[in-house]
Structure formats: structure tokens, C-alpha cells
Amino acid sequence: MDKSLPNGGKSPTGIKPTRNKKRVIKNILLFLLIAFMVLQFFQPDKNNNTVVVANDITSVVPMSDSVSKILHIACYDCHSNNTDYPWYSNIQPVGWWLASHIKEGKEELNFNEFTTYPTKKQLKKLDKIKKSQKDDWMPLGSYTLIHRDAKLNDAQKQLIMDWADSSVKIITALPVKE
């Protein structure tokens, strides 16, 4: 005990400062745990619709099985009305982040609503699909980090680009939709 300090080195409450710090840290961790548990009760709506809608891109543009498979594996989770959710999507706040990401993806391009777009927008979307493969910015790295099968090789990217080119030809031959 150091007699030169007031109260002989003790805090006014008689509790050592390190014990008080441990209690504060314990209370903070307990609060965070309870907050985390409460968050689990607030789940975002799921993007699940197993019905192929009449507005799907396949109703206006033919798609080979190989192109369809690639798009479903690498694109449809974020760019359609039907997401195949991983187990961790039920853990908040991860689920909220995924829901936000899917909403943004569908706003940019939704394969299930493609025919509702005016012709000019459809052509722009197909051009963006081609550029996304040529410049290698889709699928996003954050997606392929967990979904390894969504990382496309050069042959798959070329198949998508060729399909986009042929789709542009088909759509330009159709009556213009405003």
C-alpha cells in the first residue's frame, strides 16, 4: 500500500481501478450480446419467387442451357426475383447488408422484369452485360469470394458476351417498345 497517495492508493469506493475496468468491459460486452440477440428478431424480407414470370428475359431472347446455367450461378442471386440465400443471411446485420445489395442489383438489372424495360433500356442493359464481362467487374469480387462457382473463366465470359451480342440483334429486329 502506498501511503503517499490519498486513501493509501485505493479509490474512493475502495475498489481497485482494474477491477472496475473489468466490470465496465463485462457490462459493455453483455450489452452488445443482448443487442445482437435482439437484432435477430428483425429479419429483412426475402427475395423469393420460384415462378418464372412472363417478363423474364427468356420470353424475348433465346438462351442456351449453358448461358442460362452461367447466369443463374453468377448473376441471378442479385439480378432476379429469386435469390438462393446462404445460411448466414439469417444473421443480422449480414442479412440487412445482403438485402440492400440485392435491392441495388435488381434496380440496376432484373432478368425477371427485363421485358418491362423500353427497347432502348434493354439494349443498354445488354451492352452493360457485355462490358461487365469484357472489363471483368461482374460478378462482384465480394460475391465470388464466397460463391467460388460464380467466378467466370474466359470461355464463360466470351459465351455471355456472344449471347449479349446475339440478343441485341434479336431485340433490334423487334418493334420498338417505348
What does this structure look like?
It is a single chain. With 178 residues, this protein is mostly helical. It has helices spanning 17-39, 65-74, 94-108, 119-134, 141-144, 154-173. The protein has 2 domains: 6-39; 57-173, no CATH class. Helix content is 49%, strand content 0%. Helix 2 crosses helix 6 and helix 4 packs antiparallel against helix 6. The relative contact order is 0.12.
Nutshell version of this structure?
With about 180 residues, this protein is an all-alpha fold. Helices cover about 50% and strands about 0% of the residues.
The general outline is: elongated
Instruction: Give the biggest beta sheet.
Output: none
Rg on CA atoms, Å: 27 Å
Low-confidence stretches: none
Strand content range: under 5%
Class by alpha and beta content: mainly alpha
Q: Summarize the amount of helix as a percent range.
A: 40-55%
Number of domains: 2
Distance between the termini: 86 Å
Tell me, rounded to a whole number, the average pLDDT: 86
Q: Enumerate how many helices there are, as a single number.
A: 6
Report the order of strands and helices: HHHHHH
In total, the number of strands is 0
Key traits:
6 helices, 49% helix, 0% strand, mainly alpha, elongated, 2 domains, 178 residues
Layout of SSEs?
Blueprint: H1 17-39, H2 65-74, H3 94-108, H4 119-134, H5 141-144, H6 154-173
